[in-house]
């Protein structure tokens, strides 16, 4: 299974409403808009080590294969979601790997 891990660090100017909108839209994208997403998980940082470097929200998306991930990446709703992040998300990390 192909897994993509996404971490968001929000801009200091992002409101709680902005952040909630990003969370809501990411969940909708992964669970109702792009059927190639096999599974979706999300959560906020709870570690006590203070090693998150300002990244507060994490998301995991699973795909059956590389083609499904590519379909997700090219999907118009994914492209719209990337645009939605402008002005709200300061930095993001995306790491894709094959799950074992």
Would you write up a description of this structure?
With 100 residues, the chain is an alpha+beta fold. It is built from three helices and four strands; from the N terminus they run βαββααβ. Strands 2-3-1-4 form a four-stranded antiparallel beta sheet. Helix 1 runs antiparallel to helix 3. The longest helix is centred in the N-terminal third of the chain and has 18 residues.
List the helices and strands and how they pair.
Blueprint: E1 2-10, H1 16-33, E2 37-44, E3 57-63, H2 66-74, H3 76-84, E4 89-98
Helix pairs in contact: 1-3
How would you briefly describe this protein structure?
The chain has 3 helices and 4 strands, in the order βαββααβ. By secondary structure, it is of the alpha+beta class.
| Shape estimate | globular
Biggest β-sheet, characterized? Answer: 4 strands, antiparallel
Mean pLDDT level: 97
Which regions are unreliable across 5 or more consecutive residues at pLDDT < 50? none
**Main sheet strand line-up:** 2-3-1-4
Task: Using the CA coordinates, give the radius of gyration.
Answer: 14 Å
Order of helices and strands: EHEEHHE
Supply database-style keywords.
100 residues; globular
């Amino acid at each position: 299974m192909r897994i993509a891990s996404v971490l968001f660090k929000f801009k200091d100017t992002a409101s709680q409403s902005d952040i909630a909108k990003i969370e809501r839209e990411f969940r909708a994208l992964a669970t109702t808009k792009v059927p190639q997403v096999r599974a979706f998980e999300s959560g906020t940082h709870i570690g006590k080590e203070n090693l998150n470097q300002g990244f507060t929200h994490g998301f995991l998306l699973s795909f059956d294969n590389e083609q499904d991930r590519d379909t997700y990446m090219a999907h118009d709703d994914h492209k719209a979601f990337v645009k939605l992040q402008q002005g709200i998300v300061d930095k993001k990390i995306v790491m894709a790997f094959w799950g074992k």
